[in-house]
Amino acid sequence: MNSIRRSSRRSFRHIEQLELLPYFGKWLLIASLVATLAGSASAFFLVVLDGATAWRETHRWAIWLLPFAGFAVGWVYHRLGKPVDAGNNLLIDEIHDPKKVVPLRMAPLVLGGTIVSHLFGASVGREGTAVQMGGALADQLTHVFRLNHEDRRILLMAGMSAGFASVFGTPLAGAVFGLEVLAIGRMRYDAIFPCVVAGIVADQVCLAWGAHHVHYAIGHVVAVGVGSVIAVALAGIVFGLVGMAFATAAHRLGAFVKARIAYAPLRPLLGGAVIATAVWALDAYRYIGLGVPDIVLSFQMPMQPWDSLAKFVFTIASLGTGFKGGEVTPLFYIGATLGNALAPLLHMPFAMMAGIGFVAVFSGAANTPIATTLMAIELFGAEIGPLAAIGCVTAYLFSGHTGIYRAQRVGHGKPRKARERLAAAPTGPVAESTATASDLTREAATEAG
């Protein structure tokens, strides 16, 4: 009888669900704290960003101050921000190979740098700022909770998810973004609970502070059928190629400028002078900043076919010469206006194609097809889900191994030759940490040459 009781007690102690309770409680608390910090930071950022954008739009002459603003931000980063200048790539690198806590200065530096960039007319986004603030603030809890390397990885992923979710108002997409962006073709499910909690709570915290997100009316969505699937798949190929071109151009211009201008503050000074002159000469004020008004218009009326190209060029010039911000909202602009322009050629509704382009170009540029599909559903409604998935997955497949995040690793390659190289390499975390997307892109370019 005693042996039966002892056996029962051992079985009770080893019930898997009971063993999960400490893990559940731990990460519910930590992820909620991370979300509160990131959501509050994003709310403050969005309010200040709206004010900066409104001021710039009523003071067009401010574009001539862009070179000096760029120099000021470059100088501050040169003096104080070298340890955090890698931005999102630093966070991704720390998740793959934890070394030391991300300096807290990343948050105020990227916040100030982004606001100044928008205040004077650089064409940059906001996701980079929110993700970096979320990651930097989250990492400060490493010592508070005495987390080991593995838990710190999860903490940083939760911070990235919280920042992304709160700045765009897409909690599920934000949660999956933190899981999916680390490696092409592979997701880390060990962090799924903290990232989901962080994404949902951060979004609610941001809303509770009174921050608002843009709402898009997509209107009629055609039924899933042979014609619509073929049309969206064809558009997805274009979206993927544009996403790849964007990432490649941004990296190459950045490398070109760094190779020829050794003193970092001079890069945005010269870039700002070129951008300001082009904006004034071409009356291209609509292509600077976030470009949200034009994104909204792309869901309401036909746009000019060159809108996406103009935003592409101004954004590459801004990011490549060192202005701070992000890539995602400009990618939304490029994708929405491009989808709008492709719609009549494919005999599809322009609002629906604008919505699919909105997420698909980002999918191709960031290699995140699942997060972007969820984003489409959260922003435009569940009805667009199947076609958005086709567009995002197709764009992902056709964007190659390049991406806007240099530190992104390759879990499972896309083209056949990449898969063969990965299959021949050693497996496991070490193997994954040694192959980056840019590595395979350079190999493919060498073979093609």
TrEMBL record:
GO molecular function, one term: chloride transmembrane transporter activity
Pfam families documented for this protein: Voltage_CLC
Predominant location category: membrane
Gene3D superfamilies recorded: Clc chloride channel
Subcellular location: Membrane
Residue intervals passing through the bilayer: 27-49, 61-78, 154-179, 191-211, 217-247, 268-288, 308-333, 345-366, 386-407
Protein name according to UniProt: Voltage-gated chloride channel protein
